[in-house]
């Protein structure tokens, strides 16, 4: 296992590039939309993302330990970055209280709500079809305490962490690379940023866990030379039941590798173990047609299960782009 240490952050803001990924969103709806109450998603699972259609927002709510957070309505807002003002309520059944709050950040659509604890709620939403936003809310004050943009966020079962890919411009830039980060909900907005990074910066947020040597510097995930580029190759991130380990598949230098990050010592200095996947062991080259000469692209990792508390033994499950390529439904691996 190797250790990733957090380096110093650069104080520059990568806001200019981000504007490339925030084109005009769906036009404002003509009226405010009142919503019913439906719980979706839970920690450790991907948010139950709807099709991106802010004008037809689905009902979203969540409840835990007597706290129920509900998305009530949204209306157009010319001064809001997303073009929408989002209205929420927090119900505390133990205290018989009801509090309202409004979100006016880049979030155009609410996908999921997770009550992490009696004092904290996280809202997972999107600014556009492929760009997510995480918004943290203090249940006691009914105020937003932080928000940041990302790709593929997955909250840990304990509700302490969320793993995600650092956001980058999706148009007009070259050499983009995935940088895998963790945000600690038990730390403050300031503590989840490096020295000199203001809390108004919603891009360079969180602690890098992979690739090794990552430091979450502004703009460090664009204009990356080809040999150093990385891409998430599993359908999402996968947490162990105790939230001490995080697993995913990374693609770099023409091969996919299983990566396990041990978070038990904290999000700032995770221990990393990785192992390359052998396409010949997973796919049947004799029956592969379209992917015979590119077996590494013939399958997708759809599930990663932890077979040991230490996180060193995992089971990978696959989906094949060509059914004829299937050699194994799953494979068990031991990591160093």
Any overview of this molecule?
The chain is mainly β. The protein folds into 2 domains: 1-225, no CATH class; 230-336, no CATH class. It is built from 2 helices and 21 strands. Residues 2-43 have low confidence and may be disordered.
General shape: globular
Q: What oligomeric assembly is this protein in?
A: single chain
- pLDDT below 50 for ≥5 consecutive residues: which ranges? 2-43
Output mean pLDDT: 86
Number of domains: 2
Element string (H = helix, E = strand): EHEEEEEEEEEEEEEEEEEHEEE
**Helical/strand content category:** mainly beta
Major beta sheet, strand line-up: 7-8-9-10-11-12-13
End-to-end separation in angstroms reads 7 Å
Helix content: under 10%
How many strands appear in the DSSP assignment?
21
- Evaluate the radius of gyration: 20 Å
Overview features:
mainly beta; globular; 336 residues; 7-stranded antiparallel beta sheet; 2 domains; 6-stranded antiparallel beta sheet; 2% helix; disordered N terminus
Topology record:
Blueprint (H helix, E strand, L loop, with lengths): L1 E2 L11 H4 L14 E2 L26 E4 L2 E10 L7 E9 L4 E7 L5 E9 L2 E9 L2 E8 L4 E13 L5 E5 L14 E5 L22 E4 L20 E2 L5 E2 L5 E8 L2 E8 L8 E6 L2 H4 L16 E8 L6 E8 L9 E5 L2
Antiparallel strand pairs: 1-18, 2-4, 3-4, 4-5, 5-6, 7-8, 8-9, 9-10, 10-11, 11-12, 12-13, 14-16, 15-16, 16-17, 17-18, 19-20, 20-21
């Amino acid at each position: 296992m190797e250790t990733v240490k957090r380096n110093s952050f650069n104080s520059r803001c990568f806001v200019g590039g981000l504007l490339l990924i925030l084109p005009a969103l769906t036009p404002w709806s003509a009226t405010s939309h009142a919503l019913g109450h439906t719980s979706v998603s839970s920690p450790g699972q991907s948010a139950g993302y709807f099709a991106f259609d802010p004008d037809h927002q689905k009902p979203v709510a969540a409840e835990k330990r007597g706290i129920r957070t509900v998305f009530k309505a949204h209306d157009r807002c010319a001064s809001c970055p997303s073009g929408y003002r989002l209205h929420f309520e927090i119900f505390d059944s133990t205290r018989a209280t009801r509090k309202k709050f409004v979100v006016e950040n880049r979030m155009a659509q609410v996908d999921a709500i997770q009550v992490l604890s009696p004092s904290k709620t996280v809202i997972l939403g999107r600014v556009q079809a492929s760009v997510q936003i995480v918004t943290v809310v203090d249940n006691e004050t009914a105020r937003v305490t932080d928000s940041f943009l990302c790709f593929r966020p997955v909250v840990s079962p304990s509700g302490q962490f969320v793993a995600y890919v650092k956001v980058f411009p999706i148009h007009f830039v070259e050499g983009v690379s995935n940088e895998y980060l963790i945000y600690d909900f038990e730390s403050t907005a300031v503590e989840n940023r490096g020295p000199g990074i203001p809390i108004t910066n919603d891009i360079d947020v969180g602690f890098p866990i992979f690739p090794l040597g990552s430091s979450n510097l502004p703009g460090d995930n664009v204009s990356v030379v080809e040999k150093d580029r990385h891409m998430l190759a599993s359908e999402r991130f996968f947490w162990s039941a105790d939230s001490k380990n995080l697993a995913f598949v990374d693609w770099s230098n023409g091969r996919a590798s299983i990566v396990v990050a041990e978070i038990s010592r904290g999000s700032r200095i995770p221990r990393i173990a990785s192992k390359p996947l052998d396409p010949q062991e997973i796919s049947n080259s004799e029956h592969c047609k379209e992917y015979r000469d590119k077996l590494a692209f013939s399958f997708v990792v759809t599930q990663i299960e932890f077979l040991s508390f230490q996180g060193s033994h995992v089971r990978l499950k696959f989906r094949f782009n060509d059914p004829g390529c299937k050699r194994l439904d799953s494979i068990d691996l031991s990591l160093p």
